[in-house]
Design a protein that fits this description.
With about 450 residues, the protein is mostly helical. The protein folds into two domains: about 1-200, Preprotein translocase SecY subunit, CATH 1.10.3370.10; about 200-455, SecY subunit domain (Preprotein translocase SecY subunit, Orthogonal Bundle). It contains 20 helices and five strands. It has helices spanning about 1-15, 15-35, 45-50, 60-65, 70-75, 80-95, 100-105, 110-140, 155-185, 190-200, 205-215, 220-245, 280-290, 290-300, 305-310, 320-340, 340-350, 365-395, 400-405, 410-430, and strands spanning about 245-250, 255, 260, 265-270, 355. The strands form two sheets. It has a three-stranded antiparallel sheet with strand order 4-1-5. A two-stranded antiparallel sheet has the order 2-3. Strand 2 and strand 3 (about 260) form a beta hairpin. The chain is globular. About 35% of the residues are buried.
């Protein structure tokens, strides 16, 4: 306890770190306040009394989790940061696929500025499409809360649609701006922190709901303690998954420039066991939303066909979890393949006079790195697949649906990853000023510290 108090004092004594922490908290508070501001034209009384506490399933539930409940509340930040994430994924894929984007990515700061600008324009387009789809869903599920659909409506549906789409797009762009400001002036990656705040805001309610249900007779407090212990074990396993790396030794040749010697030291190339991050789960969950669409489309045409697809709507069914697991494994290999380019890594090593001991530079090095990536990706893919279906397993064992989301899946991976990244940055500030590390032994390694993909 004394060491913790000393560490907190050291953190607060560093002016730059203190300023960054305060600015981060202020910007995150602004975002959380915005999630409770309704879209113009929505009746807040009806939303609070009739639809308070309602939850979504599937992809809509994922979006609602990332937005901290703003999606269900019809907030101005209902779309959250998801359109920006979708646009970033598209631009990232284009960077690997199109030579023009590859050239921009190698142009340094100017190229990065161009790519960011393209991402922002694409975010506007994506958020516009998602805003229109969101309004269709809002009209069908909560139409009685819209002033435009009430008798003697004070505004037309056309006016409401234009106003709502403009508000939602502006809300997404403002959220993106907040994330960029946190990254530049705050602490940690702003986009990831906004997602994390949205997810963690639902944790206290999930814990209270699970504790209340257990006290009500479903197992008692002992079962609740067992669930908490199991949850902590799962968190430790996810930390091992995120931190796990295969360090490949790299030797750099000696160079003498003037009176100084450069190189001649052995370093390590860190290859992550889970180099794909949470992207495979996000892609797989997006595809798992297709069966619900097909079920509704085929319901009037073929009961057997709709029944086949309907089994994939139950997240506790064997078919759903088996398909989900397979998709995650496939997407893990796919995203790892586009994230790590063995040929590019080999060329960069050769350009910097580096080589892997016992391996010839060039194609032999690229093949060696590719073999290692293939070997470590398999256990990583299996592990992330198990983590992804853990919420379904928790529900089968009687855990509350809301609390079960934190037993694995995208929510837990993002929470653990972002917290590790933020602690790693704090640890770096402490080490630079000769203070003790946050850890008694070693240092905290976030995803960025080992070259992993950001959320």
């Amino acid at each position: 306890m004394k060491k913790l108090i000393t560490t907190l004092k050291n953190i607060w004594s560093i002016e730059e770190l203190r300023t960054r922490i305060i600015q981060t908290l202020i910007l995150l508070a602004v975002y959380r306040i915005g999630t409770f501001i309704y879209i113009p034209g929505v009746d807040p009384v009806i939303m609070n009394t009739k639809y308070s506490g309602t939850t979504q399933d599937g992809l809509l539930g994922l979006i609602n989790t990332f937005s901290g409940g703003a999606f269900d509340r019809a907030s101005i930040f209902a779309l959250g940061i998801m359109p920006y994430i979708s646009a970033s994924i598209v631009v990232q894929l284009l960077t690997f696929a199109l030579p023009s984007f590859q050239r921009m990515s190698k142009e340094g700061e100017d190229g990065r500025r161009k790519i960011n600008q393209i991402t922002r324009y694409l975010t506007i387009a994506v958020s516009g499409v998602q805003a229109a789809a969101y309004l269709v869903q809002l009209k069908s599920s909560k139409g009685d809360a819209l002033y435009a659909m009430m008798p003697n409506a004070p505004l037309s549906m056309t006016t409401f649609t234009i106003l709502a789409i403009t508000t939602l797009v502006a809300g997404t762009m403002f959220t993106t701006w907040l994330g960029e400001r946190i990254t530049d002036r705050g602490l940690g990656n702003g986009i990831s922190l906004i997602i994390m705040v949205g997810i963690i805001s639902r944790l206290p309610f999930a814990l209270i709901g699970e504790f209340t249900s257990r006290l009500g007779g479903a197992g008692g407090p002992i079962i609740f303690l067992v669930e908490i212990v199991t949850w902590l074990v799962v968190i430790l396993s996810v930390i091992l998954l995120i931190q796990g790396t295969r360090r490949v030794p790299v030797q750099y040749a000696k160079r003498i420039v003037g009176n100084k010697q450069y190189g001649g030291v052995r370093q390590y190339l860190p290859l992550k066991i889970n180099g794909a991050g949470v992207m495979p789960i996000i892609f797989a969950q997006a595809l798992m939303f297709i069966p619900s669409t097909l079920t509704g489309f085929l319901a009037e045409r073929s009961s057997s066909a709709s029944g086949f697809f309907a089994q994939f709507l139950d997240i506790t069914s064997f078919g759903y979890n088996a398909l989900f697991f397979i998709l995650i494994v496939l997407f893990t290999y796919f995203y790892t393949a586009i994230t790590y380019n063995p040929v590019q890594i080999s060329e960069d090593l050769k350009r910097n006079s580096g080589f892997i001991p016992g391996i010839k530079p060039g194609k032999k090095t690229a093949d060696f790195i590719d073999t290692i990536i293939s070997r470590i990706t398999f256990p990583g893919a299996i592990f992330i697949g198990i983590v992804a279906i853990m919420p379904s397993i928790a529900i089968i064992f009687g855990v509350n649906d809301q609390f079960a989301q934190f037993y694995g899946g995208t929510s837990l991976l993002i929470l653990v990853g972002v917290i590790l990244d933020t602690l790693a940055q704090i640890d770096t500030h402490l080490s630079m000023r000769k203070y003790d590390s946050l850890m008694k032994y070693g240092r905290i390694k976030g995803r960025t510290a080992t070259g992993g993909a950001m959320t």
